[in-house]
Amino acid sequence: MDLVVVSNRVARGKANEPMTGGLAAALLPVVEKSGAIWVGSSGRVRDGAQKEPFAEIEALGAGALAMLDLPAAHYGGYYEGFANSALWPALHSRADLIRASEEDYRSYREVNAFMARALLRFRKPDTAFWIQDYHFLALGAELRELGVTQPVGFFLHTPWPAHGMIEGVPHHRELIEAMLACDLIGFQTDDDCENFLGCVQASLGLAVHDGVVKSRHGRTHVAVFPIGIDPEKFAQQAAKAASHPDVSRLRRSLNGEKLAIGVDRLDYSKGLINRINAFDRMWTTQPSLARSVSLLQIATPSRGAIEAYGNLQSELARLVGDVNGRHGEVDWTPIRYLNKGFGQTVLAGLYRTAQVGVVTPLHDGMNLVAKEYVAAQNPADPGVLVLSKFAGAANELDTALLVNPHDIDGMARAIATALSMPLTERRMRWEAMMTKLRAHTIQRWFSEFVEALQESGANKAAAEPLIAERPTLWPLRTVRSTARYQ
Ligand code: G6P
């Protein structure tokens, strides 16, 4: 079987270059090995006059990377507009930040249709298509419109919220219906999967049996595939990175002081304001921790043209300045705040240097930083992960110190607890997490999804009409019997 993987952002074959977001970084090594063709946006636009979509194609491991110039007239409405100002906030349960217009929706659909046409060039009789993430919710339906009968899978890297939230997205019904053109839809967690199936019933009135939805497109399997990392590789990188100049400079600058680390895209879903407030609270309520622990917060700018992101960047810079001004000393800066990205190797070394990893999103599909922080630790003297219970990773990493990212006092206490945790407890917690990471690697995630896609594509039944008139009140708990592939 030939595999074509599609995502908006792709990564070029250099793992040591800074990469924005977990999706591209996670996919790179597995796609590279698999021999798949990975198709995505080049980040450039082109006017619509050209006949053929323009793609720059380069070798990627045993396969290839194809980067498309997307249509200039629709790119803004698609990327900054519908994908990141309507879908992203809704998927992260931030109804207050949803901004949507008909024009943006049209652009989103145009880009999905454009991508479908571009993909035909890579189609062979035994090709399977695997679509990634919320940028392309309608791509499966567009492929079917063009006559594609091969298996089509979809994986959502973000959470899927409750029906009441997704209703805030104009055209949500159309989009959910379009997703059902896929043979297999994968989610990060049971909650996301249950929420999606709840929406399928509530919005479309379709019945769900054992994780299978029947629609006018035929049968769609819906299941959970929590994404992982390559923990052994990450551990090796972390051990090696100790001698990297950035890492040794950091170590030297600490003067025996302890370090907490946060690494995030600068995004409102990451809970950065609450995290800084928690450190502020900790230094205020436990002054003995001033000078003895500092925070290294890497916040890589992202989607800067969107108002909510610009506002967050200003608010964070002001808050960090305020906290440093109040708690700092002539020879001590409480928060080292960096607005740039780092390559994987340096990051691995930075994680290993820090006694505490703080991953406290308000909502997150999985959060691979949490997994990477754990894998990067020195087994003889591991650091402690402080993890939001609203990150998908909390399902597996349940021996981390789990926190509510809205509870500033609770987070402040958890960070202080992490700093003073005895070695035996740290090792016990860390070993339990490593066992999970080793059992659910990114390689396994990839191959299990592809296998399930092949199976569901092969079993695809004949199309059945969409039953829209009588909503089925299907009990959510039966979803628990949904196949769990990891
Ligand atoms: C998240 C999304 C990805 C996205 C990444 C970076 O991880 O799930 O689809 O690529 O953020 O965001 P950006 O808008 O910079 O591609």
Q: What is the residue-mean pLDDT, rounded to a whole number?
A: 92
Q: How many whole angstroms does the radius of gyration measure?
A: 23 Å
Reading side by side through the largest sheet, how are the strands ordered? 3-4-2-1-5-6-7-10-9-8
The largest sheet is: 10 strands, mixed
Low-confidence stretches: 461-486
Task: Give the number of helices.
Answer: 16
Distance between the termini: 22 Å
Q: State the share of residues found in helices, binned by percent.
A: 40-55%
The number of strands is 16
* Hetero groups: 6-O-phosphono-alpha-D-glucopyranose
Shape, principal axes of CA atoms:
globular
The fraction of residues in strands falls at 15-25%
Structural class: alpha/beta
Task: Set down the secondary structure blueprint.
Blueprint: E1 2-6, H1 22-34, E2 37-46, E3 55-60, E4 63-71, H2 72-91, H3 102-119, E5 127-132, H4 139-145, E6 152-155, H5 163-166, H6 172-179, E7 184-187, H7 190-204, E8 208-209, E9 212-215, E10 218-224, H8 231-240, H9 245-253, E11 258-265, H10 272-285, E12 293-300, H11 307-327, E13 335-338, H12 344-353, E14 356-359, H13 368-375, E15 384-388, E16 401-403, H14 408-419, H15 423-439, H16 442-458
Parallel strand pairs: 1-2, 1-5, 2-4, 5-6, 6-7, 7-10, 11-12, 11-14, 12-13, 14-15, 15-16
Antiparallel strand pairs: 3-4, 8-9, 9-10
The structure holds 6-O-phosphono-alpha-D-glucopyranose.
6-O-phosphono-alpha-D-glucopyranose binds at residues 8-9, 20-24, 133, 157-158, 265, 302-303.
